[in-house]
Amino acid sequence: MSAPSIDVRLVKAGATKIRYPAELLTDDGTHLAVRAPWAAPGVRDFGFVRFEPGDVFTEHYWRDRWYSVKEVRSGDGTLKGWYCDITRPAVLAQDGTELSVEDLDLDLWVSADRGEILRLDEDEFEESGLAGRDPEAAEQAVLALDELERRARTGRFTELLRS
User: Fold this and answer.
1) What is the DSSP string of the chain?
2) Long-range contacts of 124-132, Cβ-Cβ distance < 8 Å, separation of 24 or more
3) Which of 2, 32, 116, 128 is the most buried (most CB within 10 A)?
4) Which of 79, 75, 145, 150 has the alpha carbon at shortest distance from 111?
5) Could you tell me the domains of the chain?
């Protein structure tokens, strides 16, 4: 029996940035996990990692946390690392067919092979004006990024994926 399918929708600045089908792995009412192949066309080379066709993302979302964590593996199963999006808490549609998250521009990369931890897009976050429009959300976003970085630096990062 195959796992149920769900659409993941990432919203940025009020518009759908990307939407893709995923396989629902678990949903305990707070934490959801889905699996999906790399959904964008072609290769995206960030300099510190390449996302490419064949990569598989196991994505973790929470209804009560301001981030999502995506475990990234190559097509042969090699762990590349974890890409973390700072988002508003995830919202699952009432019919259970769509999971929506609003991207708040901040990101964190945790490399599996070098242990490198990179804070990303802090300039985009500042330019977004979120702090002026929604100071509470901006504060939650910064706290979420700090929490993820702290967990990564203290070796408590992957325990998130079990909660």
Assistant:
1) -PPPEEEEEEEETTEEEEEEEEEEEEE-SSEEEEEEE--SSS-EE-SS-EE-TT-EEEEEEESSSSEEEEEEE-TT--EEEEEEEEESPPEE-TTSSEEEEEEEEEEEEEETTT--EEEE-HHHHHHHTHHHH-HHHHHHHHHHHHHHHHHHHTT-SGGGGG-
2) 128/13, 128/104, 130/104, 130/105
3) 32
4) 79
5) 5-162 (2.40.380.10)
Q: Do 23 and 34 meet the contact criterion of CB atoms below 8 Å apart?
A: yes
Report the sign of the C-alpha dihedral through residues 43, 56, 81, 84, in that order: positive
CA atoms within 13 A on the CB side of 161: 18
pTM of the shown model: 0.94
